[in-house]
Amino acid sequence: xxxxxxxxxxxxxxxxxxxxxxxxxxxxxxxxxxxxxxxxxxxxxxxxxxxxxxxxxxxxxxxxxxxxxxxxxxxxxxxxxxxxxxxxxxxxxxxxxxxxxxxxxxxxxxxxxxxxxxxxxxxxxxxxxxxxxxxxxxxxxxxxxxxxxxx
Amino acid sequence: xxxxxxxxxxxxxxxxxxxxxxxxxxxxxxxxxxxxxxxxxxxxxxxxxxxxxxxxxxxxxxxxxxxxxxxxxxxxxxxxxxxxxxxxxxxxxxxxxxxxxxxxxxxxxxxxxxxxxxxxxxxxxxxxxxxxxxxxxxxxxxxxxxxxxxx
Lengths: 151, 151
Prior knowledge:
The structure is a homodimer.
Chain A: H1 4-21, H2 24-28, E1 31-38, E2 47-48, H3 50-64, E3 69-79, E4 83-93, H4 95-100, E5 106-115, E6 118-127, H5 138-150
Parallel strand pairs in A: 1-6
Antiparallel strand pairs in A: 1-2, 3-4, 4-5, 5-6
């Protein structure tokens, strides 16, 4: 019988495959109704609920259709009996983008809970690291200050 | 006796307070030796291990000393018996930054496990949402494409 960690690994690999195939039913198959996603772009308060989560995917699929990859490079899972978390680095971009920024990875963290004996994704956090864009956000301003102090 | 959720809430509130006070011992008090942090800036592969995690804080404290806040606005915790995750929105910035971007929040996700009966932070993911900076990253390029398609 598969361990909880193995089941969660299978779930995440299946989800990643569904994302890459633009298969919305597959993307939603193991997600909770009350999922909260911190997506790469705003909303600042997060994407809340399965309907809002579903709505984020079609624009991503359109972008991806130009030939972008969405694949796991590393995946670490910590599973208890009924709660788990996982974090991963993914290659997400086009060949042109990888040529320009070969080291950049999408960072992904998942929170899962077991519902009726089945692992379910209740939280996702997607981000790219901040790099030196000119327009200030709190993050970029903080980093600019740090660079100014330390260089 | 405090529930696991209450203990984790106390841990995270104490950690947030230590960050705001620039108290490095307090920041490290409940973190595992093998912590992996996806920080706001690179490294792309994450900050790995407690020594690398420790080293990220002094520059942040210097930036914060100009009068920035670091405070929890919302915090959701899902705790099992020995594994838990939490996600939060924080106000992190200066008054000037909040005046310019009042809705922007730091998004924080934590993965925890119980070690010798004590909750320990094994993973952190910090990010600000991507907004429309001119220099392209895979994220920004994706969003620019999405905007171009949908506007």
